[in-house]
Amino acid sequence: MGSGRCAACRYLRRKCTDDCILSPYFPSNNPQRFVSVHRIYGASNVSKLLQRLPTHLRAEAADSLYYEAQCRLEDRVYGCVGLIFLLQQQIHAAESQLIKTQAEIAVMKSQVQHP
Amino acid sequence: MGSGRCAACRYLRRKCTDDCILSPYFPSNNPQRFVSVHRIYGASNVSKLLQRLPTHLRAEAADSLYYEAQCRLEDRVYGCVGLIFLLQQQIHAAESQLIKTQAEIAVMKSQVQHP
User: Fold this and answer.
1) Which of A7, A95, A109, B12 is the most buried (most CB within 10 A)?
2) ipTM of the complex
3) Chain A contacts of B87, Cβ < 8 Å?
């Protein structure tokens, strides 16, 4: 049935069979989702990756592939590694502020004890 | 020259020409680097992505692709998105601790002012 094809089979202009590995994760109502992963990984690499996973983990894997593909389309140079750098900087900033604040507490404690 | 081929051309058993797009970023002394990105993205997707970038950004792009590919090989389900979740959790934990510590300071300040 042409109208029952998943987004991947529709995009690749092929028949969508009952055992289509992509169909549960790339529904026809969200064609952009497949286009994104296809542009970055290619349909065959995505299929292979999903096929090697147990069924119950495939939805999460498809989601994370889509997330990474979107990041790469938005930032061709760094992809989601750019986000990792940014988060690591935020952690360092929060940790530095925490150390500073804890030092402030130590000073205050000594003031409370020996005013 | 066979011995002058980059890791990509060596792996793909093809001639490495002077204008090989992959050769500057996949040197023959690190064959695993190419194998990783090839397994996740495929050589042709990596080439296309690098080709669309200005030359001075290609080394960083190749590094981030390699990083993401390594993450995906280590964690087939979440790839480096797993790391992003983890870092976000760490930020929330650090921020909560900071708010708690700042509240402690406020209490102490009031003790110093009105002992």
Assistant:
1) A7
2) 0.86
3) 84, 87-88, 91
Contact A50, A82 (CB under 8 A): no
Q: Which domain holds residue A43?
A: 1-74
**What pLDDT digit, counting tens, does each position of A68-88 carry?**
999 999 999 999 999 999 999
Same domain, A90 and A40: no
Shortest distance between the Cα of B105 and any Cα of chain A, in A, equals: 6
| Residue A34 DSSP class | H
Please check whether residues B59 and B83 belong to one and the same domain: no
Per-residue pLDDT for B90 more than 80? yes
- Chain B residues in contact with A95 (beta carbon < 8 A): 94
- Structural tokens at position A52: 């090697």
Closest listed residue to residue A80, CA positions, set A48, A40, A45: A40
A88 part of contact set with chain B, CB < 8 Å: yes
For the record, the structure tokens of A56 come out as: 């119950």
